[in-house]
Amino acid sequence: MNFQFEEEHGLFRKMVRDFAINELAPKAAERDKNAEFPAEAIAKLGKLGLMGAFIPEQYGGAGADVISYLIAVEELAREDPSVAVTMSVNNSVCCAPIYNFGTEEQKQKFLPRLASGEVIGGFCLTEPGAGSDAAGLKTKAVRKGDKYILNGSKAWITNASVGKYFVLIAVTDPSAGTKGLSAFIVDADSPGFIVNKPEDKMGIRASKTCMVTIEDLEVPVENLLGEEGMGLKIALRTLDHSRIGIGAQALGIARGALAEAVRYAGERHQFGKPLTANQAIQFKLADMATKIEAAEMLILKAGWLDGNGTPDTRLSSAAKLYSSEAAIFCTYEALQIHGGYGYSKEYKIERLYRDARVTTIYEGTSEVQRMVIARSLLR
Q1: pLDDT value for 140
Q2: Which domains does the chain have, with CATH numbers?
Q3: Residue 293 annotated among the catalytic residues of the structure
Q4: Backbone angles phi, psi at 183, to 5 degrees
Q5: Among 333, 346, 363, 367, the one annotated catalytic
């Protein structure tokens, strides 16, 4: 058992860290304030190969391993979680299912453009009346000749309004329950894919999230991902992978919060001494650091299993659950250490505090993760 990173991982981390500090940090607060999509940063990430980090080079990706991808998400999230989730979604819920379940023709057609950052992708699963309840999906796909006609609506779709290709889950056989779901690769530029205005969110404001209305959207039969009836399998496998990425995003936010807390506590003096001289502050920092270490171990184990072809649903949920709640804890304590200044938008911790909140909600709430973990134990 070896708990040391490979040398290549260290070099990869440094590259992404330097990019995050030099390219993302200077304008992160401005992008958050204006809800401005980081198009320039995403284009640069594409040139670095990070928009298709673990996609093989033959399909235009960087050919890195899953651990490298998770390192990248973490380091980006330390400075700008909005950029991190934009990159993560393109990788984990668009590129990954196409690579894992697509035909060779589909891989050659879609992956090079997605992996290079030429275009951006996403995942259309959640609906206004169905989030974690896949059996409640209402969007329907009816085959007519060489096309499927799709109708319905999707909610909280990350990268909508800026993305081109989306993996979409729809009902092809209403009588078959969850076995009647199928997955499609849809082109957002097609008539009938109607993107509503971006949500005005509390955090992750530079990432675009929209409701999507599907009206007589024509999808070629060759864009069916896998076979009819495989939609739930594809969705669950994709979520097993993507939840680890959200865990890495939360870990990056937690690390960013700890760094801000340590810096501020060392600079701020009260009663003639720095805050770091107070045991109460020391204990807060210690608790934050311990949770971060534990979160990292869960993420790395889940990521290693995923990358080696043996994904563990329970562990992916545990990594996402623990890391997201650790991010909430760390940003809360870091803001508390800042006192009144932490409540000001002039300080980075205020933004990280807001950005952390959604990590316990998307890709399955903390309550859903606990359900998944409990079910695996009680089978």
Answers
A1: 98
A2: 7-120 (1.10.540.10), 122-229 (2.40.110.10), 232-378 (1.20.140.10)
A3: no
A4: -115, 140
A5: 363
